[in-house]
Design brief:
Chain lengths: 179, 173
Amino acid sequence: MAVSYLEVLFPVIGLVINVLFQVLGFRYIASIGLLKSIFLGFSVGLFSVITLEAYVFFTMSKSAQDFIAIIIVNLVTYSALGYCYFHFLNLGETARRIRIVRELYDSEGGLSLEGILERYNARDIVQKRFERLLNNRQIIEKSGRYYIGNPVMLMMANIMVAMKLIFLGKESEFDFHRE
Amino acid sequence: MKILLLSPILFLMAFILQLIIWKIRIPKRQIKVLLVIFFGTLFTGLLTLKIAPFSIPGLAVYSPRHPLEYLHISISFISLTLAYMITYSAIEADSPSLVMIRAVAKAGLGGLDKKEFEKTMNDELLVIPRVRDLLNDKMAYIDGDKYRLTPKGFLFARLFVLSRKILNAPKGG
């Protein structure tokens, strides 16, 4: 059989190492922000998966074809899991639904809509995002007006709109032309 | 080789099925339907490989022989599915950051005036639809005039409270 029990779990082991190093990096390395800690965790996890695969290749008799097929599967699986973890952290950092859920969680007896908006509203959302975009140089400010800086986010935004058109037939959730 | 081929093929089949269903009618609870489509495809695919590999010419050659191979295919497929679903949730709802970036780009050489922009990005656009989503996803319910979390909502909140606590990070949003 081409695959062993451990090889099946290598991507999951890589993810556990990824999470461990990301958390330790974020908490204990002062100069590291969330994004850099995510890259650190992902890199260490990836290195672990490659090392484990190499160990199996050199210690177990396995054809090169089987080894290449399994390492590709495991690297793709690990990358997908790492991507999910990145988004999980990103959701905790930026997602509006999660913030609203947390406000409800912290309020015994629940909150009225006005209560929710007192704690979290459009002004907070826009302000935080402008700060983030400015800090990451995705946008730049000149004389009180904003311009595109690093175009990577703009490319992502355009890709997202293209995907919305493909899947949902509209550019925005507030575009009701299709209905 | 089997795992390298079967996992992406099953994923592609589920993806095509989703596209067909979405062209007929976009479901109200999209993520839930995606889960059903993808895990249904995985289950049906693996069952076919196990019970009826000769039902499709040439399929028997690729049929896994050992339970570990089925497990490996499942782990690979599930990781691709989770990655896809988490990306899809970003397609469903407009990301304020990406909307802002496109607005800045659209403003062109003259640049975007922040105060003008803030007038369009209001609670009706940014907060109230997300509150509505929580009701649709059964994470919250209305009790009188108050929004309260369901057990599902509590579990969801606890997961993120714990992860932010481990990171020693403040509330996000």
